[in-house]
Write a structure and sequence with these properties.
By secondary structure, this protein is α+β, with helices and mostly antiparallel strands. The chain has a single domain, classed as 2-Layer Sandwich (Double Stranded RNA Binding Domain). The protein has four helices and two strands, in the order H-E-E-H-H-H. A hairpin with a 2-residue loop joins strand 1 and strand 2. Helix 2 crosses helix 3.
Length: 111
Amino acid sequence: MCVDKNRTTISKLQAMEELIPINVLIGDRTYRIRISPTDEEVVRKTLKLINDKIIEFKTTFAGKDMQDYVAMVVLWYATQQKAGDSQPLVDNETGEQIQAIEKLLDRMLLD
């Protein structure tokens, strides 16, 4: 059993080594995340989509602060995913990364 646990730990460490750090900007905040190099293009395109939507909502709707606009984008994004478009906006792995970014945002906003 100890051997299996060590193999799992080694596999996780190897996976961590393959990740690259990038700085991402969402709204007016910068976050440092680690991603797989193969996901970088998708993550950057998703970030561009998110930030473009934030700008769109800022010009269209009244809001008190950036958190309001980020919340509007999250609602829009979730609605688009549930609408069952013929092609999803992002794959499952990117969706998980977005959830991780959302958790980071939540933590930062609560501090």
